[in-house]
Design goal:
alpha/beta; elongated; ten-stranded mixed beta sheet; 449 residues
Length: 449
């Protein structure tokens, strides 16, 4: 059904309107210069989100902000957050090397130890296992490890005798925008089970490993009430571990508003809650504790846009489909989680005779080019096709999928032998290519017949 749309000609409408620019740069020009599909990031949005956490809120501040780089690991993004004073978490050998290439040191800077706090580890390796390559690199480079399984303790001790580690503890409960992003409770493989701490501490002692850090993370997209539950559980586990602790980490999971009406978390209240937890533990242990937070999507999600071209418009019975040149190989969150992303339209011709310039709107399903029925951007959890209220579009118009800067490009694949898209960073009104589009030759580089 087609309806009229007020304000359809606005320059930027992130909830189903028309969008002409991203961070002051023409969407159409970006597409002409770099092709589609295309990831575009707004550098200033990332800086603003970094400063949300690095700048004091009242009398409270996080001592360390550690970016979960798996959310968006382009080297230009890592360099940007590094310049904002944010350190990084790495979950693989590849992410360790990305951090090094972006300018991070593998070793803690002893000069970063201030006011009785322990020094900051620029890179922390967080995982539930050591694959052999990761253990080799951790040992060679002296990377600090956040252990999610007790078996990692003996494996590390054999290579790095006397190492200090952080324990990632599963508190027995979790939460998330999808069951697939819930990282706590019996349904999650992540972390050391909270009831096993006494046994794990004995294993650490036998292995000659010192437990100096404690980390908890219950899931991505959790709300503040669930995040607050972590503080109480972490405090209980910290008291069980004892005064060897010098760092506690609140993990990540800060929510990002994707849908109309959703809001950001109360960051001031959250850091105040954790500072109270830290103070009680400091009084119990008799020394200072470093307080970390580990955001991923919070720093980058809102900065990202996926620009894709409408290549076909067709009716399937009573439902209309817009088919674009991006698919779940480009952005997997909708097919994996039923995730919602705002969408807007940049018309190829903004004149009144163009479909998008007519001021009319319609309910459409948006899909991609892949040979899969699940290749739909407007779907709900469980794979059910939904529709979106958008300006009427025609072939050649550009669809902009918004809030796509976290778990977007990093989850992209070459499925159907599709090349990975280009990435562009917009900073100060200037667009810079930060990853070239893959070529057909790149797709089978390294293969033989």
């Amino acid at each position: 059904m087609i309806t009229s749309a007020p304000n359809a000609s606005s320059a930027s409408s992130p909830q189903g309107g028309l969008r002409q620019t991203i961070a002051g740069v023409s969407v159409a020009e970006l597409a002409r210069a770099h092709g589609t599909p295309l990831y575009v990031y707004d550098a200033e949005t990332i800086r603003r989100r970094c400063r949300d956490l690095t700048q004091p809120r009242g009398n409270h501040v996080w001592d360390t902000v550690r970016f979960a780089q798996k959310a968006c690991s382009n080297l230009a993004i890592l360099d940007l957050v590094r310049r904002e004073g944010v350190v990084v978490d790495a979950v693989s050998t590849g992410e360790i090397h990305r951090a090094l290439a972006a300018g991070y040191s593998p070793h803690a800077d002893r000069s970063s130890s201030t006011d009785g706090l322990p020094p900051v580890h620029p890179i922390v390796y967080t995982a539930d296992i050591f694959d052999r390559d990761a253990l080799d690199e951790v040992a060679r480079l002296g990377i600090h490890v956040n252990c999610g399984s007790a078996d990692m303790l003996e494996q590390l001790a054999a290579r790095v005798p006397g190492a200090e580690v952080t324990l990632r503890v599963n508190p027995g409960f979790g939460h998330g925008h999808s069951q697939k992003t819930n990282t706590g409770g019996e349904g999650s493989k992540h972390g050391i089970w909270h009831a096993d701490i006494a046994d794990v501490m004995r294993r650490a002692e036998w292995a000659g490993i010192a437990v100096t850090g404690l980390h908890m993370h219950i899931g991505s997209g959790t709300d503040l009430a669930h995040l607050a539950e972590v503080a109480g559980t972490l405090e209980k586990v910290a008291r069980e571990i004892g005064r060897s602790l010098t760092t506690i980490s609140a993990g990540g999971g800060l929510p990002v508003p994707y849908r109309p009406g959703e809001v950001h978390a109360d960051l001031g209240g959250y850091v105040e809650l954790w500072n109270d937890t830290r103070r009680r533990l400091e009084e119990a242990f008799g020394h200072r504790l470093r307080l970390e937070i580990e955001p991923g999507r919070y720093l980058t999600a809102e900065s990202g846009f996926l620009v894709t071209e409408v290549r076909a418009v067709k009716n399937q019975g009573s439902r209309k489909y817009l088919l674009v040149d991006a698919g779940f190989n480009t952005l997997a969150r909708p097919v994996m989680y039923g995730a919602y992303h705002p969408m807007s339209l940049c018309p190829a011709d903004a004149g009144p005779t163009s479909p998008a310039g007519s001021g009319l709107r319609e309910e459409v399903a948006v899909g991609g080019p892949l040979c899969e029925s699940g290749d739909i951007f407007t779907q709900t959890d469980g794979g059910f096709v939904a529709t979106r209220d958008l300006p009427v579009a025609g072939v050649g118009d550009l669809l902009v999928i918004e809030i796509a800067g976290a778990y977007g490009f990093v989850m992209a694949s070459n499925y159907n032998s599709k090349p990975l898209p280009a990435e562009v960073l917009v900073d100060g009104g200037q667009a810079r290519l930060v990853r070239a589009r893959q070529t057909p030759a790149d797709l089978f580089r390294g293969e033989t017949v």
